[in-house]
Structure formats: C-alpha cells, structure tokens
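Q: Convert this sequence to structure tokens.
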Amino acid sequence: MAREPLSLPDGPDSPFVHLCQPDASKSCGACCGLYNYVDSGREALTARLRRRTALFRASVRGPGDLALFSRTVKEGEDGAKRYEVIHCCEYVGFLDEGERRVGCLLHPMQNGGRDMRDASFYGREICDGHFCPSYSYLSRAEKLALLEILDDWYLYGVCVTDIDLVKEFFRLVSEAAGEMPPPARFRDAALRDEARRFFDLKLSWPFRSEAANRFGKYSFDGSEYAVHAIDYGALGCGKSRFDRILLSLQSEFAGRGDLRAAEETLRVRIDAVVRRYRELVDRH
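A:
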C-alpha cells in the first residue's frame, strides 16, 4: 500500500523536522523516561502504557483528578530504573486507539484543548520546549530518511535517539553508494525493507548483552553512567570499523569468532541497502 508523504509542521521545505510526533504511524517518548525502566522491553512497556491510558480515560476529567491518577500508577507499577537521575513520567500513554503513537496524556490535544502539563514533574514549559540531541546532531536528510523507514513506535523510539546508530548507518551507506540516498527514495518498498532489516537489529541482535545496567553504549550505576567500551585486545584483534554500531547494539562477545560473525551480519545488511539503492538509480 502506498504511503502518504510526511507532513511537516512548517511545510515540506522547512528545515525543522518534528521527531517527537512526526506522523500518525509513530512517535517517541524517550525524553519522558520511557526506556529508562529496568524492564523496557516492548511487551512490558506496551502493558504499562495500556494500563495507564485506560485508567486516565476512565478517571481523569480535570486537573483535580491527577493526584489520584499519579498515585495509583506509581503504586501499581514496577518503578525500578536503570538510571536514577532520569525521571520516568507516569503521564506517558497511548495517544490513539490503534496504539501506534505514545506521548503525553496531559497534552491539550488529548484533552479538548485543556493543557494539564503543569502537573508533570518538569512542568509545561520544559515539556513543551525540550528537544533531544537528535534534533541537533542528525542532519535533515537523516531525519527524513529515518521517518520514511520506520513505522513502529517502539523501534522508532530506540533508534531516533541513538545518534551513533543512525549516523553510522547513513555514513556507511553513503560511502558505499557514493552519495546520501535522498529520503524520498526510501518510499521504495524494497529499499525501505532492507533499511528496516538493519534497524531491526536493535531488537533482535544475537550478541546483545542482557545486563540490566546496559542500554546501548551506556552502562549505568545508580546515579552514574559511563560509555561502554569493547575490549578488542582481549578478543585478539584491532578496533572494528563497525565499533559505534556494535556499541549501539549493546554488544558483548565471547570471542573473536562472535565479533567476526557480528561484523559480517552488519556488512550483509548494509550492502543489501546499497545494492537496492543502486538498482533504483540505474533504473532512472
């Protein structure tokens, strides 16, 4: 089925690309601490958001109902965090019946124009004005291409906030193809599917460390965090050309053979994207 072109708030030629709520098929709630729970798997977060949304719709009629809602959510959920400094907002839920978009249940667009975000931990002004680092560090072309590729709130959220993963993917593809593929090219179903297969590794990576204190390239210890590093010396080899991607995928290797298998997986998936893009260019 054909996809409608992305609709940007300031027009299709605007340099601003809205990453939080880009379209009707996906959104991101990472800045609200959505992925900061120790159990941040898809099933756990879906169940958490579904309960909150149902409770909010059934019990909140105005600001006076929010204190009880907040208390009920906190008492009924496992609040264990990876990183204590990052607040996990209890007002994140599903914004649509199809459960395709996550976001703020206090937002005026969810409450007939009434803005109740002052009840949140950070307040309305901070919530309204905050833009994550991806807004600054991803290029316009990278943003628009990623929006064309991903149509899943969970995968989108963990990828759009992983700057290294996104930039390294497009860098390697661009270097092999000789140019950055125009974002509109990813409307081609075959090219989009190949690119999506790469980003799906964020969820299905066989060399992923299951340590509760790991999230992407970061290791957390209560209120402290550090950038994890792969000990290539212990594996008997030099630094991988895919190092940033391997870290983003939360990699842990038992030996050199695992590393080589991981590198081959990445090479194959990136090459598939490049090959399909070249086919499109040659066709036109």
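Residues 1-13 have pLDDT under 50 and may be disordered.
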